Amino acid sequence: MTVDVTETISQTVHPAFQLVRQHHVEALDILVSEYKHKVTGAVHYHLAANHDENVFLVAFRTQPMDSKGEAHILEHTALCGSEKFPVRDPFFLMIRRSLNTFMNAFTAADWTAYPFATQNKKDFQNLLEVYMDAAFAANLNPLDFAQEGIRIELENGEPVYKSVVFNEMKGAMSSPSDQLYHQLAHHLFPETTYHYNSGGDPKDIPDLSYEELVNFYKSHYHPSNAVFMTFGNESAYNLQEQFETLALSKFQQGETLYSKAERRLTAPVTVTESYAVDAEDLKDKTYHIISWLLPEASDIKLRLGMRLVEGILLEDSASPLRHYLETCGYAQSTGPIMGVDDSNFEMTFYCGVQGSNPEHAEEFKAGVFKVLEQVASAPVDAQMVEAILHQIELHQREINGDGTPYGLSLILNGLGSAIHHSDPVHVWDVDTAIEQVKEELKDPMWLSNLIKTHLIDNQHRVQMTLVPDAEKSAKEAEAEKARLAAIGAQLTDEQKAEIVAQTEALKVRQDTPDDLNLLPKVGLEDVPAELQIVQGQLREIISNGLDTPLNLYHAGTNGIYYQQVLVQIPQDIVQSPYFNLLSILVGEVGAGEYDYLELQQLQTAVSGGLGMGASLRSKLDDKNQITAWLTLTTKSLVNNLDAIRLLKVAFEQLRFDEKDRIIELLQQRKTRWQSRVSGAGHSYAMQVAGRNHSALALRDYNNTGLGALNWLTELTAKIEQDETAYDALIAELQLIHHRILKAPKQFLLVCEEHQSERLVEEVQTIWDKLSIEPNDRELTQVQATVTENDEAWLIQANVQFCSAAYPAVEVSHPDAAPLMVLAAYLRNGFLHSAIREKGGAYGGGASYDGNACSFRFYSYRDPRLAETFQDFDASIEWLLNAPQQEHQLEEAILGLIASMDKPGSPAGEAITACYSLLHKRTPAYRKLLRTRLLAVNLDDLKRVATTYIQSQKPTKAVVAPVAKRDILMELGFDIKQVN
Question: Considering its fold, how many domains does the chain have in total?
Fold first, then answer.
């Protein structure tokens, strides 16, 4: 419903703001109020909700017209000190002085946003003051630009580029999918801001000047160009009082940026571009993609209509376009960018494949348009449309928040519309648009005509073939080297002296302690006394003639239920690499009477999907033992109980007779895994370094690490060529499936209380009996790879990821808590400055992993190697020999407590509570760990640092570019390479 702006309501509005309208979103139970600041025109959307986790975001319309990275670098430097808080690093300092549940900043294609979330009222006020001052009164010190943006230093008299963002973007642009996206946008948008890389292209970032950065700030960071969004139980009046006092009262009306429609192409564009690979064999490494530019995203009916088109064409493997792309025969997987993107001013539509070869470009295009013509030639099946509408309603109703806070997820969903001067309410409340679309659907050809108009006949489209280039990395490195050499040749003695002086000044600034008293803080006295843990009920149902536990949790799930089957996994299956492959098949191959296409259609119609995964932990008090549970999952609206039956069918009657589909799924898994490696290099480095510190760490190294990726690559190649190899694979999978069917089980059900009894009854009825075929074959034993040496894994990248790991204790040990605090203490007090600020890496730190039973140092997107390992060692020397401060200890503990207390979604918290009990992480244990954390002192940190780190030799690991092979060999690493 829409609430009229009455005189009574206006009396509660802050005098500096005008209430434009209010709208209650019934499906989400939030009241959206739109306000406008009377002087500057700043817009404020407040999402009032009965949530303790309050969220704030301020965003600016940022429209760079080059790829120098000014928007991204400004995002960094704005957080490096402001008028009221003239400290060098208020953002990272506040992370430590806060109980925040989220703090970050984002640079998108045409906006930059600064969000935070917290459950603590005092903390909210503190963070609001810092964020508002950073946004509207940033100092923009030239030395912070040098640190974060770009600078030249002299090494042995020769110039080199250094900076955080420069190295961040070198790492980001190592990813083929990122290169694909930006090169495609370059051609799809010839004239508007989307033509450029707002994050900054490493080739262009050195061209950005400090003066350009300051001018960009002045022209973009103004309240008239800003959008405020807030969520939670804080009143809009109080928020606006702070906005006005902290910033808005200091400004007059300024310029508001508006997005421009792209000049339309009169004919399609076909291009071939390249991306860097470090491999001799370039076969099956090409991407083919077609992208279309659609009308403005503000057309909410068309926006939802194109979402329906996306669902019809691409929702699942039975959808005609996805089915074609997955089974075309000339590619290994669908592309990394698929479907509608409605986040920009004008929408785009993508489809593509990867793992192909250049000569298939015409075949790809012909195949795509053949499918589109076939679908558009007749009315779309009404049942298919209903299934997609079901998915839209499920997505609309689901309360997320297990990663990003729920309120922030809602805000980010609507932000694009607000940035583009459109209406975000239509994003939060789709009911009106659905009613409009249902009227259009009375014309059976409406969706078919959308496909014809916006895809088949749309001349503004780009077909790109992205081919691998084994020499591109070397060429780019040589080009950078030549550019620097040319700069060096022209440097005068005076200019060299200026560079040296800047380097020294930056070092002094980085080494000068900040006056922390300038910043607000919360303390341990603000920490809630108790850890809030969701409580469930333990019921019993009869399954296969046995009393079987059912874990029932009541939660505010907004009309959705979550059902899981929890299976205790035998230890030999846990160790088998084939177990992970089985999880790929559930819900993706046929089951019982359904082939895989029919099963895919059923999933879309009645559920939010079927899935299989695993929850693995080291035993609480024995790192040589693993507790392992298989998880079979589904969710659906409460009026759709068929999902429960479908989960049972998909698990119990899993079919192994669809050979082409199984090979296709393994190829997809391999291709997508390969594309994600460079984005998670630090995780792989830590996994390699700590691989021998627990049974679970070794299992994960062998089964989910880079070696496992090589094994999967070899396996997929083998089973395509060798029938015997394929049969052996199926035999292993069938045996694991049989063993899991026989293994002890529990059930998990999360739902609203008034729906629970009918759902429990349905679970009991559906899971009453299991059909288990006999299978007496022995599982093939796989010998775990155990090596002690330092390892370097070579991948396609432009930067390094370093780690050093030390064996540590189980999580039940009293020293687990001080080791957790030690990691945070070293990161805050030494490693952040040494690795990020001075070393130029995008990130770095330390962590204690209770499952790996390992203490690990790491760096992320790091330009250095040996020096980073020296910094790891130096952090311990600093702890043991330099004066230490109690406030730094408090900051380390605060961060850990905030992480433990961070709320999830209602369903997510229930699922987490259940899994914790399965692994014996009882409420008593979790509360004890929290108590131990709060009791850690500085002597504890020095003791565990001496015991577990200083007195032991670490295992080192690096994930690095192929070009670093010789250097890594000189440093003593065993060299391995990702295939």
Answer: 2
